[in-house]
Amino acid sequence: MNVDDVKELDAIEGDALEAIFKRQEELMVKYLAIDDSFKPLLSRLDVHTRDTKDIKVWPVNLDDYVAQVLLKETAWRVTEELTESTQAFHDHADTPQHAKEELADALHFLVELAILVGIKPDDIANVDEGNDMLRAVMLQAMDIPKGTLSADAYGVVQELGNAMNCLKNKPWKKSQILTDGPRFRAHLIKSFYHIGRYAWTLGMDSDDVLTFYFKKSLVNKFRQRSGY
Question: Could you tell me the pTM of the whole model?
């Protein structure tokens, strides 16, 4: 199953970015039971069951090296999906559908990263009541100078790298270093604007981003049910 198999979406009510965060957290709760990436964190929290529907493991402790490993792995997944997107575009520039689907995958992991550290939609975009936060992010993203698709993708990677560079703790270190939380959060938030710039370069507006995200989320739900 892929996004082409999703013909219609249910109406999405309320703020688009909040809807994305809500759906991603639903997916994360399901993945807790099946994704081994979470195993060390669950063990760290003295959780010894995979029946995790009522367990909240986020926001994580930014100073815990076990949590830092998970955050860095998640950031790497964003990078992988972005490179798949750029490669798909370069291979099939006349049919960018697959590149947009891979961007949706990258957004899934980027939102997951934000949820893991307690960043909320209104931390990313403060807007007046009645205005849509996803649209606000996309509009602000237009202030970032447009480059090539690969250059725009690297803008996301650069901010993620800057954020991950704040996580200094290692399992073998005897002395642990406190994380500069504000700096970490600032770089992670900036990555949302850069992924918005990337989406513009792909020819997507905020409605397209929302549609592709939710189509891919339905694909992921199907894969969870089918044991993919």
Answer: 0.89
